[in-house]
Structures are given as C-alpha cells and as structure tokens.
Amino acid sequence: MNSFDVEKFRQQFPLLGNNSQSIKRHAHEQTNPTQEVSNAFVYLDNGATTQKPNCVIDSHQTFYQEYNANVHRASHVLSAKATAAFEQARDNVKDYINAKSIKEIIWTKGATEGFNLIANTLAHHILSPGDEIIISVSEHHANIVPWQLLAKQSSAIIKVLGLDEDGRIDLNGFEKLINNKTKIVCCAQVSNVLGKVNPIEAIIAQAKAVGAITIIDGAQAVAHFPVDVQALDCDFYLFSAHKMYGPTGVGVLYGKQALLESMPPYQAGGEMIKKVSFNQPTIFADLPFKFEAGTPNIAGVIAFAQAIQFIKQFSHSAIMKHEGVLIQHCSRALAQMPNINFFVNNVPDIPVLAFTVEGHHNHDIASALDSFGIAIRSGHHCAMPLMEYLSLSGCLRVSMAAYNTIEEIDYFIACLEKIITGVDRNIVVNDVSAKKNLQQRRQLNSDDIIKQFIHIAGWHNRHREIMLLSKKLRRLTNSDRSEQALIHGCESLAWLVATQDEDKIFYFQADSDARIIRGLLVIVLAAFNGKTAGQIQNFDIEEYFATLGLMQQLSPSRGNGVLAIVEKIKALTLTE
Is the pTM of this model over 0.70? Predict the structure, then answer.
C-alpha cells in the first residue's frame, strides 16, 4: 500500500466508532473550538495499550466458537486445528522480527514475565559477587526491579546509564561504565516516556566486546517500526502483544537458541517435559516448549497473529509516515502554548510526548481532559527513576497511534488551552490550622453533596463541579502536612488529620497538591465528618459515589487514590 488511509485504518477499530467524523465536523463547524463534542472519545493513551481491530476481536471469538481445544496434547481434529493455528502464530512472530528459528520464540504473558524469566534462569548462573549489570535510567520498572532482586541475591552491582540532552542513552557514559565485570546490559529500544530511540546497535556491539549479555525491551518499538533481531544481534528481545493492536496477556521473549538451550526451565508443569518419573531424572522438552509450562493463552496467541497480519496489511512504512505527521503537528502545537515544559531536546521518534503544565497538577489536567472525552495518562508511567532523574514527581504523556487524526490532536490542543487559561489556581495555603475549629463550622454533609450532584448530567459537568468544590477545602498548614498524615496510595500528594471530641465524634481535615483530589476530598469528608467510628465503618462509600455518578473516581488506581483516602479514614477510626 503506497499511501496510508487513516480513515480506512481507523474503521477497523469498533471502539473508536465514527468519532473521528464528529471531531472533524466540530473542527470545521464550531465557532468555539473548545466547545465540548457530544460523546467525544479521543484515545491518546496508546503507550499503555492500543485499541483492537475487528480481525483480532473476531479471531479471539472464532477460536472459542469453532475450534476451542488444548494444543499439542490430543489426537482429535479440534486439537490439531488449534495447534496448527497456535504454531502458525509463532512462525508469524519469527518472520515479523526476523528470528532464525521458531525455537527462539517463547510465549509469555507479556514483556514483564520475559524479564523475570531471564533473571531467574540464565542470569542466576552467570553472575558472581561483584559482577555488574548496566541499566539505563529511563527503563520501565519491569526492566529494573527483576535485576534489583537478582543483584541482591547474587551480590552483583547495578550501574545506571544516564541520558544525553536529547533524552537518549548517553553513549559516552556507557563507554565509561562498561568493563570486563559487566555481565548484563538491559535497555529499551525506545523510552516509554520520552519516545526517543536509543542507540542500541552501538550498545549491543560494545557489550558483545566484553562478553556481556544484551537484553532489549522492545515493547514501545514493535508497533511503530520494523525490528530485525538478527541485524541487531541482541541476545534477548522482549515485547507485548497489547501495545501493537493485539490482545492482552500475550508476550514474546526472543532469545538466541544457544542461550535458551543453556537455560533451565522457568516454571514446571505440563507441556515443558518429555518424561517424568520417580525412578529416573525428569527430562525436559525441547525449545521452545521447555519455557511454556501449562495451558497457554491459546486464543490470545492466535489473535496476536491477526494483529501482525493487520500491521503488515497497512505496512510499517505507511504507518511510520502518518505517525511522523502526528508527531510534528502535536509537538508544534504544544510548543506554541504557554507554560508547557518539555524535558529533553527535539521531537520524539515515536508518537509519545511527555510534558508538564506549569502551575497545574498533572492529575488535574488529565482529569479535566477526561471530562472533554480525551484520554491521556498522568503520573510516573512506571518510570520512577526517570522522574527522579528529571527532578519530576510525574508528568503528562500523550501517546498516539496510527488511527489518531490531525483533527483529534487539534481538539486535544483546544481543550488543553481552555483548561490552562480557564482554571482558577487557588493554591495559597491557609496558615490557620483547621483542626481546632472544624467542628464549630457548618460543614457540607453527604445529603448536601447529593443535592448538588443529583441533577448534573455528564462527566464534563460533574468534573466542573468537583473542581469548584476544591475551593471549599480549607488548606492544611505546612506543619500538618507531615509524614504521619500522608495518605499512601495517592500518586498525587495528599494528607489527612483527624480529631475526636468528647462525644467521640470524628472530624477530619485533608489536603492535596492536586485540585481534582481536593474536590474529591470535599465529597469524601462530607460523608464522614461528624460521625462516630461505628457510623464511619458502616457508611457505604460505593453506594454514595454511585448516587453521585462518580464511580469512575472510586478506584484503587494510581490516578486518584480516593479509596486510599477512605481506607485511611476507616483505619484511623478503627484504631480509636
């Protein structure tokens, strides 16, 4: 296919529907560019997971409807058909990344399991006390924590690679770190936050020169450009299906055959054995089955093969060209806005843009955009060491895919501009402690909140009401923002203090650095202030939030942590 038709591509994704047409009409017809689009859905969180095309969804359903059976283990026709499709998928992956053999393609639950597999098999046998593991500072936690655990167990040493001004791994720094004690080098081909392609060819070559094993995280790469593992000459390459239009719960570990054959099994059970006996040593299966214990995600693997064929149908080169246009358009638009801060030089290599908005909390921006039907991500993006390296508590991330359009980017920019220019930043901390006179003031109770929300329709309007409520929260003093008062489980900082009067009635005061959390705190405290411990324990917070139409906010997600606030209130009163 010589040219890329974004509408034809987009129509393959049922969750996206005809939304692009409504966004397009809005862009051309509305005099107010920031007026909310009815039922808008602009999905810009593709770095976390992509949407799924019809062929993937249909494949998953067809397997269960027409030939559901276990693989490799039976002589009947259903098993034969399932096994053939399952192994054809392995062959498709082999071709997709240009591996030498299907023996080098191991199915996992995702890239995370692949890292743990390597750390618990090969790495345990090649490390001695004092040996070194090199990891870049921009890695996903999945490519950090397994090596931290391994280093602790083996008394190895972790060395951390910094970045250059463009946000790529600093090759000069790498040359200074690598030596004959280096046994493992782990890095991502593309950062999941900065969107920059790292110079992994040079890194792999230098690692090979000292005999180090190279492990490449390709999770953010494989959906955006072709990967050739033989050309890279890496020892291991890992990725997940769900970031490239495939199903969740399926991943690929590519490893050079000689290395995989030298590694012991990761898990034990069915399928990974040739013979089991109490009288003789157990004999393990040949590659790749040695690492695939138990019944695999058969439907997911077969559906993943459809995702690969789907990408091939539209071609990587055409997808890359369209995504390049999106990168340039979104980068230029953000750069022209006031108070937008980027962290590295130049535009990203894949359509992933990270930034902060000066004077606004990341979660406030993300939740406000959500009220306009725009999905982006805020937080640390499973890259806390990178946030620390950049002196950030978190950031916003817009990650696009080939089904995104220029009109969607324009709508996102217009809504972001409205949020930045239209929000009242009332962030002055009140120096008078609220704890001493809280019970004397007229407090909003749950009935008051229900009356405010009961007739409000639409998440956009409810979000606006939450932001207005944030102004009603009396701020805590700096002394009250103690470590003891900190609410763990909120990605934004939040604090809670409690007092109890002579009648054993509880009163709470709370605060947060995010306006959306402050508004939600008003709603939560209205439910619990002025109650006894028993009343607090018995209050049905889920029913309360359901009545308010805010169940999406009552979740244990890192984004808001409302449940963490409720749990801390109940824990304090339970102690009393």
Answer: yes
